[in-house]
Structures
1.
Amino acid sequence: MLTMRKASVDDAALISEMGFASYMHHFAHLWREQSELQDFLRQEYAVPTLQQSLQDERSCWFIASDPSPVGFAKVSWHRAVDDHGPVGTLLHKLYFLPGKTGLGYGETLLTEIARVAKSRGETVLWLEVLDANPNAHRFYRRQGFTHLKETLFSTPSQQSTLHILCKPL
């Protein structure tokens, strides 16, 4: 049975390890330049960076276990989509280790995150998903998310379209 707990600073190394493993497994093929991928991973999942993020009260990290850790999520509270869009909980990350997708964990974790966000007075849950990730699109649409708008993620060698999806709570 999947359980979710709020991560602490002591979990930075665990999140780093899971972040590198899950991101490489699910998204490495989308990067043209391996050096840019490695720079991105170091920026996102370096232990000191994670320790700082884990102490930021505007964000929250969660670890999902069954019974050992299988994935994680990161949210930021009360974030605006843009100057004109809704304000709500931004789901930055919902990642699972290789072999741990398609088991219902994502729906369970997302449901719990939505419950926590709603208990904090949030009325919207939103996220960005890569255009090149059709499985994630299908998953989020099944969970009640709708397309709000598009934006770009750029590196020196490529651009990727991100779809911003939103769900009322």
2.
Amino acid sequence: MATFQFDLVGPERILYSGAVDAVQLPGSEGEMTVLPGHAPVLTTLKTGMLVITESPQVGKRVLVRGGFAEINATSLTVIAERATPVEELTPAIIDADIAAAELLYDATDDYDRKIEIEGQIAQLREAKVALSF
């Protein structure tokens, strides 16, 4: 199967760099799967699970919280505001993120911002359930 170069950069470190078969992104306009030969796209990311497929039956998951993705036919680069590999997540980390988001929600009167934060909280709760904490 054809592959493409994928680079995932978080604020503290490079979390992934290598050839992959596919990457599923939590795009701000909806989930999207990037495959080799993808049309050029620049998109923002929302809070959610990024799924990296290295080869059939082999992959990794990373919880991202915002960022950008630059896609072209031969590569994908993700610059994440925050990113944590599933192996490094704990219930305490997710609970702290939920509590921080709830404080932001309570601190704003901007309706659109409240809707955005509600989505983040829902995604974090889904991630916690999906990881069976």
3.
Amino acid sequence: MFYQFYELNHAALAPFRAAADMMRLAYANPLNPLSHTVFGRTLTASLEVFERTTRRYGKPEFGLHQTQIEGKTVSVHEKIVWKKPFCNLIHFERSLPAGHSADPRILIVAPMSGHYATLLRGTVEALLPGADVYITDWIDARMVPMTEGTFDLEDYIDYVIEMLHHLGPDTHVVAVCQPSVPVLAAAAVMEAAGDRLAPSSMTLMGGPIDTRINPTAVNQLAKDKPLEWFADNVVMNVPWPQPGFMRPVYPGFLQLSGFMSMNLDRHMIAHKDFFVHLVKNDGEPAEKHRDFYDEYLAVMDLTAEFYLQTVDQVFIKHALPKGELMHRGERVDPSAIRNIALLTVEGENDDISGVGQTHAAQTICTNIPDHMRMHYLQPDVGHYGVFNGSRFRREIAPRILAFTREHARTGRSVVKRVIKGGKSA
């Protein structure tokens, strides 16, 4: 009943949240003399912090309406080009300048780990000037009726394969964090079947390929608890009146609580600073805080079967690196990958996927030629910095774009293997 109590608590606070928002608007109105006093700003700040910490954050928008190509600003339009009950495939369609040569077609597989695909807004934005970008927009499981069936790790692999088939030959796939495992598995399944629509290159970023290497707190929790513990303690049924009523899920608010508890002091300091900035009427830092937490606090539910199978296969049994992962009754064999170039990217300070866990893909994919491999370790970034932020835009995104161009099926050439911080060997 925990999920039901959570919903009841949210509903019970709704009148207080509405009253707080109304009072905040009244005291923040410049026509109100108190809005120009420390008392007025302190009261307004207190009301806003209360409202923001008790609201449910809806799915954000990508909001990417333009990009720069060849020094010109061009418009960008979001278009759903493929859909299934648990995922939409979004194409960021650019209005290309006349005579512009074809850019690499990149499928970004966003993580299904509690946050929406919009968490990768910065990833998409950094790649748009040099690539034709598509992204998986996973659907909140609480919004999918029970009549649509189940969705597990094997279905995830099938979805990736179907999307690659839809996009056609010479597509490059980029997996951010959690999907590194199903994307590598999909590539192995396609190569083993001689599928001509297998991706030209595969970029795995901050992913848990082998969590036995340099385990983090997240990995340790899965190791210390049996699978039954997760089924009994974190799987709940979606409450009425949501469309997914009675669907067993891993609620997004539980995942968010876990993420925040890992750096609770940092989040508390951030909210204290937000309050101080509001009182001082310091608008820019306060707006940055709103933008970040509007995204960070927007979470979605995962289907129970996908969550439990992922915990079991990826974090407890380490099935992929051991060669024991199964897909539709067949063993997934990473050594079957021979024609897909592989780029692995890690962050030096990653506290979610430890250093070496993603690089493990280079070890288990034994038959990829050396000239089709590259590994990059970005110094001074954590998990988020692997796919977002200034260092991603400056250091990582250009490497991804260069790698996809080097390994397009229309003309491959040798590329150096970057080991760390721009050092190559």
